[in-house]
Each structure stands twice: as C-alpha cells, then as structure tokens.
DNA sequence: AGGTAGCGTGGGAGCGCTCCCACAAGTGAT
DNA sequence: ATCACTTGTGGGAGCGCTCCCACGCTACCT
C-alpha cells in the first residue's frame, strides 16, 4: 500500500476509504453522503458526517474530476486586448458579483485570457479538452467565433451583452434601451430642446439599443428625431472629441448631449469647454456607465448606472442552471434564457 | 472496457495509452515525452510527437493531478472587502501582467475571493487541501493571518506590497520610497518652499515608505523637515479632505501638497478650491498611482506611476521559481527573494 | 572473458474518487 | 405464503495519469 508517493500515511489527508472505516460503513455510502444523495438513512448519514468532521475530510478534487468527468470549475474568458474593458470598473464590478454568487457553491472560478492568437489557440484546446464545466463570456465582438465554438462543443455558456437580438447563447444584459430613454427624458424634462447623441461602436448591440432608446424618447416626446443630431463614436475619449466637434459644427445651437459612455462624455466635455460652452448652463451633458470618471469630472457627470455586479450574479445563476441541466441552451431548442436588468440614472451637476 | 461512463470510445479524447499504441511504444515512454524528460531517444521522441499530433492528444489534467499530486494551478487571492482596491485600476493592471506572464506556461490562474469570513474559511480549507501549487497575495493587511498560514502549509506564495521591511514571504513591490522622493524633488525643483504630505494609512508599509521618501527628499535638499507638514490620511477622498483642511489651518502658507494617493489628492483639491487656492498657481498638487482620476482631474494631476503590470509579471516569475524549487522561501532560510520595481513621475498641469 | 555502469524502455501499481451492480432486508400486493 | 418491488448498503471496476522497478542492451573498464 505504501509503495507509491512517499507521503507518510499519517501526514496525508484522509481519504474516502478512511472516513468509511471510521464510520463503519462502505466507501459508496460515504460518497453518497458527501454528494448529498437522498438514498442514505438518517442514522448512517449522521455517523458519516461525524467521521468527516473528526477526520477533517476534504474531497480530493482531482480524483473526483477524473472519476466523474466533470471539473467543478467555470471559466471567465476575458478578451484582453480590450484595454478599455479593463480600465473601466466594469470588469471589477462584474467580478465582484460573480465571486459573491460563486461563494455559495463548490465551483471554482478560472480566469482565462483570450487576447493574443496564441492565447485563443490555447483556449480552444482548453475547451476541447472540457477542462471547465461552463464558460462566462464578456464583451464579445459580433464576429467572434468563440460563441459558435462553445455551441458546437456543447459547453454551457452565458454571455454578457448579447451580440444581437437573436443571440443564440444564454445572455445577461442591462436595459440599454431603457437607460438611454431615461437619460434623454431627464434632459427633456430639464427643458432641453436640442438633444444630441454620441453613440458607441454600432457593431456593439448595446450601443444600438441606446440609440433606439434615444430615438424613441424623442419621438414619444413629440419631436421628430433629427437624425443629424446623432454622431457615431467608438467608446474612446478621442472618439468623443471627434463626435462632439462634428456635432458642434453642424448644430451650434444644441443644448444637450447624451454620450454613450462616460469616457466619450469626457472627450465631449473637453471640446465643449474649448468652444466656450458652459456645462450645464449652455449644454447639459449625460454619460453612460457611472464610472469613476463621472464622479470626478468637473462638473460631476450625470450618468446611467448599470447594475454590473448584479449582472455578474445573474450570469452565474444562469450558468449554474445550465450546467445542472447538463445541456447548453442552444440544443434545448426554444427554451433560451435571457436576463435584462434595469439601469438607474444618477443625476449630478452636469445636467 | 466500455462498462463505465458511456462516452463512446470513438468520441472520447485520446489517452496516453492510445498514443502509445499508435506510436508503437509503451505508456511510460509517451509520458516521458509529454513531460519533456531527457531520457528518451530522438527517434522515439519524434514518433511519439507525431502520434500526439495525429491524434490531437491533450493530457487529462485531472488524471495528472491525481497521480502526481500537483495541480498546475495557482491562486490569486483577492481580499474583496477592499472596495478601494477594486475600484482602482490597480487590480486590472496587475491581472493583465499576471495573465501575460502566465500565458507562456501550462499554469492556470484561479481567482479566489477572501472577503467574508465564510470565504476565508473556504480558502483555508482550499489551501489545506493543497488545491493550488502556489498563491499570489495582493494588498494584505499587516495583521492578516493568511501569510503565516501559507508559511505553515509550506505553500509557495508571493506577496505584492510587503507588510514590513521584514516580510517573510517573497515579495514584489514598487519603489515607494523613490517614488515619493521624485515627487517631492519635482516640487522643490519647481520652486516650492513649503511642501506638505498627506499620508496613506500608516499600517500599510508602502505608505510608510512614501513618508520616508518625502522626509529624506526634504532633508537632502537642506531643509529641516517640519513634522507639522505631515498629516495622516487613509487613502480615501474624505480622508484627503480632512487632512487638507487640517494642513491649511496649521499652515496657511503652504505652497505644495504631495498626497499619498490620487484619491486623496482629489479630496485635497476640493478643499483647496473651496479655500480659494488656485492649482498650481497658489498650491502645487501631486498624487500617487497615476490613476484615471489623475488624468481627468481639473487640472490634470501630476502623479507617481507604479509599474503595476510589470509587478504582476514579476510576481508570477518569482512564484513559478518557488514552485519549481518545490519549497517556499520561508523554509529556505536566508535566500528570500524580493523585487522592487521603479516608479515614474508623470508630470501634468497641477504642479 | 567477466563485471559494472548507464541508457532507453515497458508496464505494474496506485493516486482517490464515482458509478453501478449485486444483494440483504423490509413492504405491500396477490 | 409467494412474488414483486423498494430502500439502503458494500465493494469491484475503472477514470488517465505518474512513478518506479525491472529488463535488455551497449559501452567501457578490469
């Protein structure tokens, strides 16, 4: 028995077998207790639990994974080249939600970076090897092949920010449409007459929805949306500057700007200031994300807060459900899951 | 042979055994090739590698972990209640460095949150179960029992931001002393005469070192450091406000402030502005961290940049070395490793 | 010639678990 | 009383790997 390894028998961690011996039952029974099977009598269960406690037994994950062909781990795949993604508190907040929700479970969170081609290669191998039970996908581009790969491999996956209205994976999103609406309605309620919008990258579905919200809010307020008040940005500060410059040139009389992100709002603010416009006196400004930038901007920026931490929680919830079902949503047919969480307008001095 | 599981034999992933059959060698030999043992002839190695490629063989991590009693995983332990820590880009940047350095290896990064007591409990169990080969510790308090636990369990660990000059774990740090010096020297070079310092929490070693750097810079410039120009803060915005208020009351004639963090600098700025002091005309202001806040402050804040991403890389480097040595530094006696990376002063309009 | 290394190799044993079959004992219908 | 079932239980077999012992072989010393 002691021919292998060299870990002395007293120093090593207790095994199932040892717990079984201690409790005076068989190995199978201990396994059933550990895994919460109902097919165990109360008396036996109590005896086993006592033995587990006395010995300080902790299951060996590797052995379990090998025997059961599951991993008890899920991967959070991070498309790292998106520096923007990292710099924003988005990631941290989501991570906090994910961590909180996961702490109730036995699941491990594995962080996988899929930035470079080499990393993506490795990820593909990873997934093919089924080294995780499920995958969390954040900020995926519309043309990313990853979601399809996951579908093929039948690996449960949840995506934050669906790629389109027809997203095939289970998804969690915040209410971009409603968030944009509330921002614009707030500006109109404040008496603003000519509200411009700097959009995010329009290949991002959420950015499209914000445009929709902006349009509908204006339309419902009885205005014919003047298309020329919409200027595309790209979520960067520089993009915000460019868009603001263009808007100002076309519409010197605008009195409000709704930017699709705080970062773009920061860029817009610079241009407005250089153009001599006072905020909020001449032009009201509203951002999106409610990031640290919004709080520290001068003047502090009104912004739409997304419940990012809650989104993280929701993602885990949905993923665990799918894993429990042992089948990805895509193969379950119509029963796709989708969660949309409400946003909140945080009003500050800029509007 | 097919009594277990149910994964049909053709659908399953190839095993060592199958590779061995294909290459016409024994199981042991394939294992040696996979693990890069030198005790294999070139011809055999080539044959095995061909078989591996043809079959698309990927080792089963669980089986390996079980047999070899190692995990090929390292944990990044995050003391989550430190919201400050999350909100700052510190975490993201470090993560990027860690990820980059790790992508060259087979190691997995595991994220473990150790915020609540329950999470800490779980973490302790985790470590006791040796479910990771090594641990990365970030922003640990001086009185945290975790480092000692790691030492006892003989788990290789690297800490970012040593807890004291006598840190027992391998550590990576930025040059807080030098960073503070450069900030103060910059202020003096700009003609400032009365330079105040708002410190971080002094139970944080790095904050102490910044105070040391501040003092020495003044002393070396021939001034007797006036202790009353030092006011303790706590890394928060509110703390910055309080400290600035106190400093202004005691020293209405101060003409420069070096804050131990950008967030505190933001607080200080508010107070200075309310007191009618212009920045940088009346009072120059320098922060620490070079965070997004610094860039977006009005005026943009001069700040000390820490090479956080590089610190992440260095931590992985050191940790992998320790794991390779298979013994934590603490038991190797005097041979402790410690890396200190240089900072950089980013000069902006506030000074 | 015999001895003694050392290399490269094959394969047994074992890591700690889960799965499942077999079986004993109890329960109720026939 | 017989024949089902059901419930709880024990333990064999196997997951895919690593470790290590044993073996055949070559090379070089006595």
Automatic annotation (TrEMBL), chains A, B:
Write out the entry's keywords from A to Z: DNA-binding, Transcription, Transcription regulation
Molecular functions per Gene Ontology:
DNA-binding transcription factor activity; transcription cis-regulatory region binding
Q: Which Pfam family, giving just one, matches this sequence? A: Peripla_BP_3
Is this entry keyworded Transcription?
A: yes
What start-end ranges are recorded for coiled-coil regions in this protein? none
Q: Taking every annotated instance into account, which residue ranges of this chain make up the domain HTH lacI-type? A: 14-68
What is the official name of this protein in its record?
Answer: LacI family DNA-binding transcriptional regulator
Organism phylogeny:
Bacteria, Bacillati, Actinomycetota, Actinomycetes, Kitasatosporales
């Amino acid at each position: 028995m002691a021919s292998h390894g060299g870990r002395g028998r007293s120093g090593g961690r207790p095994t199932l077998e040892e717990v079984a011996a201690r409790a005076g039952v068989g190995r199978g029974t201990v396994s059933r207790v550990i895994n919460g099977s109902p097919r165990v009598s109360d008396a036996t269960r109590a005896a086993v639990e006592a033995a587990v406690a006395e010995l300080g037994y902790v299951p060996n994950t590797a052995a379990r994974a090998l025997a059961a062909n599951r991993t008890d781990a899920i991967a959070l795949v991070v498309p790292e080249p998106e520096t923007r993604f990292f710099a924003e508190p988005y990631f941290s907040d989501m991570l906090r939600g994910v961590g909180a929700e996961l702490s109730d479970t036995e699941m491990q969170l594995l962080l996988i970076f899929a930035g470079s081609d080499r990393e993506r290669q490795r990820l593909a191998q990873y997934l093919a090897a089924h080294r995780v039970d499920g995958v969390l996908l954040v900020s995926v581009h519309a043309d990313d092949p990853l979601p399809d790969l996951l579908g093929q491999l039948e690996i449960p996956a949840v995506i934050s920010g669906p790629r389109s209205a027809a997203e095939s994976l289970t998804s969690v999103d915040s209410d971009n449409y409603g968030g944009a609406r509330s921002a614009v309605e707030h500006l109109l309620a404040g008496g603003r007459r000519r509200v411009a919008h700097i959009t995010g990258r329009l290949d991002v579905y959420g950015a499209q929805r914000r445009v929709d919200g902006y349009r509908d809010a204006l339309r419902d307020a009885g205005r014919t949306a003047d298309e020329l008040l919409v200027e595309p940005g790209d979520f960067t500060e520089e993009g915000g500057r460019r868009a603001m410059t263009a808007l100002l040139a076309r519409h010197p009389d605008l009195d409000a700007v709704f930017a699709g992100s705080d970062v773009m709002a920061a860029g817009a603010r610079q241009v407005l200031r250089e153009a001599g416009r006072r905020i909020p006196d001449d032009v009201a400004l509203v951002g999106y994300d409610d990031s640290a930038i919004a709080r520290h901007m001068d003047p502090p920026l009104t912004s739409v807060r997304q419940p990012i931490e809650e989104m993280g929680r929701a993602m885990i919830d949905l993923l665990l459900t799918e894993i429990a079902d042992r089948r990805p949503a895509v193969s379950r047919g119509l029963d796709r899951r989708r969660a949309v969480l409400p946003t909140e307008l945080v009003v500050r001095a800029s509007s």
